[in-house]
């Protein structure tokens, strides 16, 4: 349901106070009296001045305190898209006082979570990357990421060694604790990076580029981190316009040679329809279809260290909130209306028997009756799927109401099965997104200009930081690495 804000009561009208006239007294003052009167007036003036100074000092202190609870800032002048390391400065401490807009089933308040220590949450906000400790009272720190450019379709990737792989004016690899960054590949003029993936063992990278004006060649690069090469190209007008969805998971080098591709349909946004397999060791072989790219279906997620595919059989756009509660590049995306899982297996790769988690809805007369899914995430052991299901109001401002569900998964291959989704929590947030796991059951998430952590077992919640603007959770890293 949409959050209701009650109107504060009207203040009683203040009546003007009129002083009664004083009775005039005609009194003759002596010279001594006049001197005493002047001294008294001087004392009154000095006292008033002292009170004014104290008031100003208190006001200034309050202003400084308020600044300390605002958006993390840094002394930098980096222009988005330009290469260069911003000047690092400590962000002001941000007291996590935001009340989580997350409720237990039955609309009861969530209990407070004791946050696991020794972790850092990495998030992107307004073209910069930040890191914040889960320790109480921690302040966000600006990461040194030269060349980084925000692109919702190409989020940074945390490697097994705790380094951050990101894109912008090329492909970069940064050590988030030492502040050093190395450029792995440059970007040709008038080209845009549209997707990027890393193999599960962290040794092989792949990315795609497209011309920024839509005219030219689409390219796929892949290979070892220190020696990637161009493995595929085609004219941009010849769609499917391939993007990388993921590497197939497998033992040894088997997991580093097969790419799963999707179709971006000549859009630079985070759009992906259909699914194809492509062997990077055989660049002359045409990508092989797995999911039909002509219909509005597409992949959503591949299970960690396995090949269980989460996909939707129907994706569509939803009304864009007119109150700007959702950033435009997210509000205009296609969202899933259904959730299926199936095993990818065989040579060539084929989709196994699908298991339905959330069925596709038929044509409905009331738009508010549709459900949509965003930011699904497998648990670290891949034995469950957690996702956000939301609906929009039928009329402007098209406010959203959300709920968190968990569906348990068992078996593999032909024996894959899923349980009925169970409600974890509800939310009044205009935008709710899941992020990354701190451990096997504590999850970082974003809701209405703040980052929280949620225990999916107990339902307890804690506030990590108020970002005061949209922030996307990228990853979680421990003190000594992942």
Explain what the structure shows.
The protein has helices spanning 31-67, 328-331, and strands at 102-104, 108-109, 119-125, 128-133, 141-142, 157-158, 163-167, 170-175, 181-186, 191-198, 204-211, 217-224, 227-235, 242-247, 258-263, 273-279, 288-291, 298-302, 308-312, 315-317, 334-336, 339-345, 350-351, 355-358, 372-378, 384-392, 400-410, 417-418, 422-427, 432-437, 442-447, 450-455, 461-466, 472-478. The protein is mainly beta. It has a single domain (102-478), classed as Methylamine Dehydrogenase, Chain H (7 Propeller). Strands 1, 2, 25, 26, 27, 28 and 29 form a 7-stranded antiparallel β-sheet that branches. Strands 18, 19, 22, 23 and 24 form a 5-stranded antiparallel β-sheet that branches. It is globular, with a radius of gyration of 29 Å. Residues 1-41 and 43-95 have low confidence and may be disordered.
């Amino acid at each position: 349901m949409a959050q209701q804000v009650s109107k504060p009561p009207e203040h009683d009208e203040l009546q003007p106070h009129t002083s009664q006239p004083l009775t005039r007294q005609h009194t003759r003052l002596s010279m001594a009296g006049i001197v005493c009167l002047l001294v008294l007036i001087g004392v009154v003036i000095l006292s008033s001045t002292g009170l004014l100074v104290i008031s100003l000092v208190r006001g200034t202190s309050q202003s400084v305190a308020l600044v300390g609870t605002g958006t993390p800032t840094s002394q930098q002048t980096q222009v988005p898209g330009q290469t260069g390391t911003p000047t690092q400065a400590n962000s002001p401490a941000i007291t996590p006082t935001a009340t989580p807009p997350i409720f237990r089933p039955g609309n009861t308040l969530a209990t407070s979570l004791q946050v696991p220590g020794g972790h850092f949450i990495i998030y992107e906000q307004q073209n910069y990357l930040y890191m914040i400790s889960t320790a109480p009272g921690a302040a966000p720190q600006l990461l040194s990421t030269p060349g980084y450019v925000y692109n919702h379709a190409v989020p940074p990737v945390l490697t097994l060694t705790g380094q951050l792989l990101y894109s912008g004016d090329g492909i970069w690899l940064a050590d988030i604790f030492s502040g050093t960054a190395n450029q792995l590949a440059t970007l040709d003029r008038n080209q845009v990076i549209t997707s990027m993936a890393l193999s599960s063992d962290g040794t092989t990278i792949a990315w795609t580029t497209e011309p920024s004006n839509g005219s030219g060649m689409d390219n796929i690069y892949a290979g070892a981190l220190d020696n990637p090469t161009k493995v595929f190209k085609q004219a941009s007008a010849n769609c499917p316009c391939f993007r990388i969805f993921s590497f197939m998971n497998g033992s040894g080098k088997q997991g580093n040679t097969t790419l799963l591709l999707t179709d971006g349909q000549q859009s630079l946004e985070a759009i992906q329809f259909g699914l194809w397999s492509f062997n990077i060791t055989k660049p002359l072989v045409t990508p092989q279809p797995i999911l039909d790219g002509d219909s509005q279906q597409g992949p959503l997620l591949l299970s960690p260290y396995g090949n269980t595919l989460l996909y939707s059989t129907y994706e569509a756009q939803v009304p864009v909130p007119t109150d700007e509660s959702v950033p435009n590049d997210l509000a205009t995306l296609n969202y899933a209306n259904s959730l299926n899982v199936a095993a990818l297996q065989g040579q060539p790769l084929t989709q196994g028997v699908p298991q339905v988690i959330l069925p596709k809805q038929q044509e409905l007369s009331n738009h508010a009756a549709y459900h949509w899914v965003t930011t699904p995430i497998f648990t670290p052991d891949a034995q469950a799927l957690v996702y956000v299901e939301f609906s929009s109001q039928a009329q402007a401002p098209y406010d959203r109401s959300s709920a968190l569900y968990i569906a348990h998964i068992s078996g593999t291959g032909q024996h894959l099965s899923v349980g009925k989704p169970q409600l974890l929590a509800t939310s009044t947030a205009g935008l709710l997104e899941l992020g990354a796991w701190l451990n096997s059951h504590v999850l970082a998430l974003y809701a209405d200009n703040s980052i929280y952590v949620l225990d999916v077992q107990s339902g307890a919640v804690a506030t990590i930081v108020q970002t005061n603007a949209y922030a996307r959770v990228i990853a979680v890293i421990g003190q000594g690495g992942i």
